[in-house]
Amino acid sequence: MIRIFLTVIVLISFSFPVSAESGGGLVIVTSNKSKVTSLNRKELRRVYLGLTVVKNEFKVRPIRNLSNDDLHEAFLQNVMFMSSRTYERQLNIRTIRKGIKPPVEYMTSNNVVKALLGKEESIAYMWKSEADNNPNIRILPTQYVEHAE
Amino acid sequence: MNKNFIFSIMLSTILLYCSHVTAETPTEFEQTYVFFPFVHAEFRPDVGGHSDLEEFNVEAGSDLVYLLNFNKYRAMAEFFFTNEEFELEQLKIGLDVDAENTLWIGRFQNPIGYWNSNYNHGLHLQTSVHRPGIVEFEDDGGILANLLMGVSIDGQHLTARGGSVNYTLALGQAPTIDDKLKPFSFSSSRNGLQSILKVGFQPDETDPSELGYVISYSTIVGENDTVDYINQTLFGMYSHQSWELARLTASIFLIDNEIHYEAASNANASFAAGYVHVEYDVAPKWITYARFERSYGSENNLYLELFEHHETERNLAGIRYDLTRRQAISTEVSQRIVVDENHTHISMQWSAVFP
After folding, report:
1. Which of A67, A93, B173, B220 has its CA 20 to 30 A from that of B328?
2. What is the 3-state secondary structure (H, E, C) of chain A?
């Protein structure tokens, strides 16, 4: 029975195209008043895995922006370099294994901005066009390579 | 539906409400909760005359992890409840000694290798429906302790190249043994001790790939008329490798048991057991997986004979479909050899993680 099941699985495996979407114009932002001035790629990944990164004596707090599927996919591909499944799994494993609080998440851009302005040490990701239109937030210089428009 | 199950649902609802309220109200305390609900159906077409194994079984429930962080202090409680049982799994208090090290006191997961440390009761996290037999839960006839009551230090050392050496050193009350292992409880008349060290290495701290080893020594006290106590030495190695579309997890355990019987005689019962688990993302929402589990020296092994249904071999294959970012359904077929018998299990499972 196992052999039949394995055969079916192999046949299914070859019947699906494997594709990866990518987004562009993603930037990392913070409040204008924030003491967070820059983050390198490694620090960004650490922050978004719930690990501690301290900048100017403030612990950087990540915000997940789930207002747009393409934006979230761009974040996973360009910043975290992992699939959504792997990322979610990493966060949950760190929570149940080490008691690490996962990043707070919001489903609308308005709430993301509100949360950014509420805590100065917070960072988030959004489309560049959106960030350019908001005078209260600042784009952080970051060093992740795939920073495509 | 029993009283514990109803109580669990009520507790979950209250925690859900509390967490919702505090999410928008910043305080010095930070609280988090994670639910891992599931519905599991299992069909065993060939169990035949086994009165203690059901041919068809459906189980529904959830694992609930609640976290409270306050400055350098942490508290974690984990409840596991189904339509058949309710259990307080973990209850521990932690102190962040520094940015990389945390001291825990209480009842916690035994760090035996990769699977138990990372997935525990979070069924949605493990791609397969079932855990490997060697790290099966005590309640389900598992042959190694999954929970410890005591103290542990959990930490990491970051390397200059961005890697991480992770370690857990724990000392606690070992389980007792009757017809199955029983984790420490305050009703136990006497318990032995377990000391365990797990060391893992991640070449990149932010990448899930890791390899490591675990060493443990424990004294398991007998609660039946035959076994006085067992001195168990365990050495294990594990590896979890993650690529863009595939993952591989492998583990091997060498276990030596020195059994001291009530009748003042001794016996030695050593064996080795391991598994190789592979997963492949065939499409964005589809994962196929297979696992091969083997044991050596398990025939007529006096330690394993203390357990009613210990498996010596298991092959399984399955497919999982992610319904949403946090929900999945899986179908799995496994063949298991229990002593001289061959059983087929067909499983279907819905699993999720919330919020």
Report:
1. A67
2. CHHHHHHHHHHHHHHCCCCCCCCCCEEEEEECCCCCCCECHHHHHHHHCCCCCEECCEECEEEEECCCHHHHHHHHHHHHCCCHHHHHHHHHHHHHHHCCCCCEEECCHHHHHHHHHHCCCEEEEEEHHHHHCCCCEEECCECCCCCCC
List, for residues A94-107, the tens digit of each pLDDT value.
888 888 888 999 99
B99 touches A: beta carbon within 8 Å: yes
pLDDT at B312: 86
- Of B64, B74, B282, B316, which to mutate for an interface test with A (greatest number of A Cβ within 10 Å)? B282
Q: Is residue A144 predicted with pLDDT exceeding 80?
A: no
Contacting residues of A for B208, CB less than 8 Å apart: 82, 86, 89-90
Which uninterrupted H or E stretch holds B167? strand B164-173
Partner A contacted by B118 (CB < 8 A): yes
pTM of the model: 0.82
| Separation in Å, CA of A35 to nearest CA in chain B | 19
* Identity of the residue numbered B272: A
Contact (Cβ atoms closer than 8 angstroms) between residue B274 and residue B254: no
Answer yes or no: are the C-beta atoms of B314 and B336 closer than 8 Å: yes
d(CA B177, CA B221): 6
For CA atoms B93, A49, B279, B274, the dihedral sign is negative
**Interface residue B95 vs chain A (CB under 8 A):** no
Spell out a b/e string for B206-217, using b for 16 or more CB atoms within 10 Å of the CB, else e.
bbbebbbbbebe
Q: Which long-range contacts (CB under 8 A, 24 or more apart) does B91-94 make?
A: B94/A99
Q: Enumerate residues 6+ apart whose C-beta is below 8 A from B322.
A: A85, B285, B286, B287, B328
The 8-class DSSP code of residue B123 comes to T
Taking 3-state DSSP, the helix, strand and coil percentages for chain B, each rounded to the nearest 5, stand at: 10, 60, 30
Give the Cβ contact number of residue B50 at 10 Å.
14
pLDDT digits (tens, 9 = 90+) for A21-73: 344 588 999 999 888 888 888 889 999 998 888 888 888 999 999 998 889 98
CA distance A82 to chain B (A): 7
Contact B263, B225 (CB under 8 A): no
pLDDT-based confidence at A78, cuts 50/70/90?
confident
Note the ipTM here: 0.79
